[in-house]
Structure formats: structure tokens, C-alpha cells
Write a structure and sequence with these properties.
The complex is a heterodimer of chains A (about 300) and B (about 280). Chain A is mainly alpha-helical and about 300 residues long. Chain A has a single domain, classed as Orthogonal Bundle (MetI-like fold). Helix content of chain A is about 70%, strand content about 5%. Chain A has a two-stranded antiparallel ribbon. By secondary structure, chain B is an all-alpha fold. Chain B contains 14 helices and no strands. In chain B, helix 4 packs across helix 8 and helix 4 runs antiparallel to helix 11. Chain B is flat and about 75 Å long. The chains are: A mainly alpha (about 300), B mainly alpha (about 280). The interface between A and B is large, with 98 and 95 residues.
Amino acid sequence: MTKKKGANLPWIIAYMLPLAIFFFAFFIFPLAFNVYTSMMRWKGGGEMTWNNFANYGKLLQDGTFLLSMKNNVIWALSQGFIQIPLATIVALILARNPRGWKLMRTIYFLPNVISTVAIAKVWTALYNPQFGVINGILKALGLDAGRNWLGDMSTALPAIILMTVIYIGYFMIIILASIMNIPKELYEAAEIDGATKIQQEFRITIPMIRGTLATAITLAMAYGMRHFETTYLMTGGGPAYSTSTMGIALYLKMDALRYGEASAAGIILILLGTLVIVAIRRALGKSDPMTEAAQ
Amino acid sequence: MSEQRARQGVSLKAAALWFIKWFTLLFFLAIAILPFIWLVVNSFRTNLELETAPFGFPTKLSFENYRNAAVTADLARLLLNSVIVAAGSVVLNLVISSMAGFILSREKFRGRDAIFTIVTAGVLIPIISFMVPYFWMVTKLGLYDRLISLVFTYAAINIPVSVSLITTFMRAIPKELEEAATIDGCGFNQRFIKIIFPLSRSGLATAGTFCFIYAWNEFVMAMLFTSSVKSRTIQLGIRFFTSQFITDNTGMFAAIVLSIIPSVLVYAVLHDKIISGLTAGAVKG
């Protein structure tokens, strides 16, 4: 610190070098490589030949890829506008510190540390038409109980989305922290003015956490756009591609050795994901999406 | 009269709100734990029992599913592979991120904030869109079907989160400590090794926990980069129960229970760190 300016530069470079190498290898280079190969005819091994955006053209005329894009939009909307409101309701209740709220907060987050594989396999069993608990409950209630939830084109997508939007832990914790940061005096003043608890939530809490809610909706939608794992494990994109997403389409193209098209699907996925982030931030009126979403 | 009715209305409304409040809380609690309790219970039952009575309890406590799963799927091997991958990626990730965090939080140079923003914005990239380049890199470097490919990849994917957490944590360490040490003749390396690194233990633990949970649970890249049992992780192993012997659900449940235990244990011990790590950003924004 008392030393001459710039004396530390070699050390700075040395300490930043591992980060630079890994960040370049796993973020910058793959992005560039993806852009490049998305314009190539390429089977994975062997030669690449320039094919002039034909990969994009093929994907955008491919009914199953369009369906996948549509499914991703449904995913994004339900994560942003079903999961986040549910998470907000629970956070509002917990912020009033009911008995056991800390323990409940810990339990709500528990599914988030358990692997997607485990959760997807358990829910596949719960949805099972013969021995599944879901049909068991419906039967006990005297309702239609013979349905093959994941095997039926009309129910597979809603069934998978339903079991993901009810795992609210992650966003609930972020929203809760934001609520608990609101100065208590605001509520005391409202109490004196005779505002009911419900009115306080709508007039104080929600407006005060607008920024956090905007971030949460943006992130939830971005995750919806990149959805892959749960669906891949539960239905593999079927039946008849009805639950396919862009990620699954990408994987299936790779599996079919259409690497150029797979790369193009990756680029479309990145572009649409970014578009969602920017558009939602615009719509919800908050600046600087990069640094905020990054945290 | 009307006043009494109004008061009655208020208390009815309060009761309704109380009911809705606890119904909501309990509903989401049930969602968060009941499926896993059902899983554990059925991991002790036979497939026949499961298929005839999904809600039942085991008739006798038998560890047969666990024994079968351990033998047929070579679970010990898969768990060991997962431990190696998770431990390796946590160490590598923390070395990279703590060195960078030290510079990004303590040194001043042009472009520092831009580097921080670009690196942390890495979380915005949908990693699954990199399946093609990652697969190409792994095969080109001769790392296909080797655990090291997963160690590198998981360590790298967690860099944005770790750098963000660790840099933020290190920024809060008072400058005076280092200044005193510099006057005492402490060099650049010693400032990092003797002062900043030890003082950042708590932040490193949070970042390391996130990396561990990610690495332990990751599935997609493990599926893409490996093919044989020698480099198969536990998450991948679970999947093989359905394709290998089609109907062994309860055997798979036993394997899932074993795969869940480490992350649940880590969470049980470190949940405060995890929750504070998640909220560090929310409080700021």
C-alpha cells in the first residue's frame, strides 16, 4: 500500500490467472464455439462445412422444436407467475414470525438441496397410474382415478409443471429476507392509522419489495426457459414430444448426431433466455438486470 | 346489536384468516417432506407390497432393497465416485475463487469492476446450451468417461456464484489488518495466505457448500461425459434402476435414500450458512 503504484501487477495477474483460464474455457469459448458450429453442418466427429444458417431454418420449420419453444414459454410463465406468487404468500406469512417460522423456513428449502434425479423419480412414482399416491388420493376422494398422468398427452406437461411450482423454498427465502429488511416503524405507523394486516401487506410490504419480486420473477422465468432435467427424467420429452423443451430438443439433436442443429438450438435458447430477462426487467421497471440477477 | 354483529364479523374473519394462514403453511410443509417420507417408508417394502398398497407400511423391517441395490448397482463405487467429484470440484472451485476474490476485493486496477460484473453475470448463461461445446472439449482433451472432466466442469460452473459470494465477503474485512501486516513486512502472498484466507473461512464455507450440493446433485453433464461404471456418479446410477431391471422401484428408492443422505446431512449442519448465502444478495437489492 505504501509501495509504488503498479508494483503488485505481476501478483494481480498471477492470482487472476486461474479464474481467467477457467472462465474463458467454460464460458467464453463455449459461447463462441456454439455460435460458430451453429452455422455449420457437423456430425460431431469429422468435418464441418458452412451451411449458411440452414440449421436455424430447419429448427424454425420443425414442428417439434416450435412446440418445445412454446412449452418453454409455458414453463417460464408458470414459474414466474405461479411459483413466485405462492412463494410471496408464504413469505408474507412467515415474515409475521408465527410459531416455528425458522424451522419451517429451513424445511421449505430442504427439497432444493435434494437432487433433481431423486425428486423426479419420486414424483414419477407418485404419478404412477397403478400404485401412485396421486391416484390413490383421488380414489379416496371418489374422483376419477385411472389416469396415467405422465403418459397422457393432455396431462403430462401440467403434471410436471405442477410438481415444480410448488417447491417454493428458494424464492420464498429471498423474498422473506427482503420483507424482513423493511423498517418496522412503517408498520407501527400504519397500525396507528388503523390499517388492517392485509392492507399493510398490500400498501407497505408489496411496494417495498417490488425490486426483489421483479428479480425473482425474472430469475424464475429464466430458469423456465432453460428447463431440461425434471422433464428429461420423467418423460424424456414425451409422450409424442408433448413435454419437450428446447433443452431436450438440443439433447435429442446431439443424440441424432446433428451437432450443427444442436448448437443452433443452444443459441436460440440463450437468445430467448436473454430476451426474457431483458423484457421482464423492462416491463417491471427496474434497471441493471445483469448485476442484480447475478446476485 | 349491529355493533355486536360487526364484532362477530371481525372475529369470523380473523378465524378464517388464521385457518388460511395455517392451511397454507402446513400444505407447503407437507409438499416439502411427505414425498420423501413416502420414499423412505417404501424403500423398506417389497415391490409387490408397493404395487398392491401404495400407502401401506412395511410388514417387517428389511434391508433387502439396500442390500440388493448395493450389490447389483455397485453403489459403493458410485458413492465413492460422487465423493471424489464433489470434493475435487469444491477444492478447485475454492482455490480459483478465493484467489480471484482476494484481488477483486483488495486491489485497485482498471477494469476490476467490469471483470467482477462479467464473471458474476455468468449465472445468466443457461449452461445446458453448452452441451455441444462441453462435450466436444471433453472428448478432444481425452477426458471422456473420466471423473476429472466432471471435477473441472463443476468447479467452473460454480465460479460465478463463488466469486460473487467470496468477493462480497472479503470486502467486509477491514483494511487496517493488512496495513499493519504490510508494515510488519508481510508480502503479497502472506497477506492472502496468513490474513485474508483464514479470515474468510465463513464465506468460503458458504461458497463451498453451494458447490458441494451442486456437484453432488448434478445429472446432465455426468450423463453426457461418462459411460462406464468406473466413472458413474450416484445420480446417474439411480437412473439405471429403471432401464436395467425395469420394475425394481423399491430398490431404486433405497438407492435414492442413500444418495440423499449426504446432502441432507450437509444441509442439517450448514443450513444457516446456506440461507445467509442466499439472502446476502436479496438484502442488498
